[in-house]
């Protein structure tokens, strides 16, 4: 297992990064909330390709949870996460406390629009992306990273972060990493561990439905017809569907004509007590 520097305060993180900077190293950042799986490790591996040094962060950010979501139930597995990060050759783990990130008197947040107000995740979690943008901006400034990795699985989040970095002239490159999947197509997620065996068997239907809708659209079917068929299939399988939408891949604006694309198909649905999201490129 490789050595990894563990930091829990901003001052300790900056001290460690300063040593790397003195050596002229490019810095990569992998922000996470822990409970790491192979999808997170793919981000670390991609960061190693793009930077000499890699910082991984673990912080379960209370600002991105709504009152209806159970922050306490979010899985916390730091010891196992540390072993995985060490094996993947991350150089620094930054795992701050809530008090370190939001000290007494903290009063500043980032207001987000554009892709954060697209009527997708924000329709069900209205304060989520303000919390994401605020903590990610803090991590960018705390680490001084040159490049930051974000998975395409959380596609709307990826677009929000990219917009924020552009709008605020933050000197960090946002690198998108393809969704990592199980052999049956299920997008890897920390929440998959909450699926019962029955629901785990059903969960890959979301990806299959996205693929069929994309194939139908490529074959000349209208977008709305393909989506209507997909929504029916998801609901008939027993999911509680939040949305299945076609959006412009860059702006997340609704799109009705594939020729106006590129098109991204996005889905969110609940099976049992577990909410799953997924997306794919359609054109």
Automatic annotation (TrEMBL):
UniProt keyword annotations, A-Z: ATP-binding, Cytoplasm, Ligase, Nucleotide-binding, Pantothenate biosynthesis
Pathway(s) the chain acts in: Cofactor biosynthesis; (R)-pantothenate biosynthesis; (R)-pantothenate from (R)-pantoate and beta-alanine: step 1/1
Magnesium recorded as keyword: no
EC number(s) reported in the record: 6.3.2.1
Residues that hold ATP according to the record: 33-40, 151-154, 188-191
Protein family per UniProt: Belongs to the pantothenate synthetase family.
Note: The reaction proceeds by a bi uni uni bi ping pong mechanism.
General function of this protein: Catalyzes the condensation of pantoate with beta-alanine in an ATP-dependent reaction via a pantoyl-adenylate intermediate.
Protein's name in the database: Pantothenate synthetase
Organism of derivation: Labrys monachus
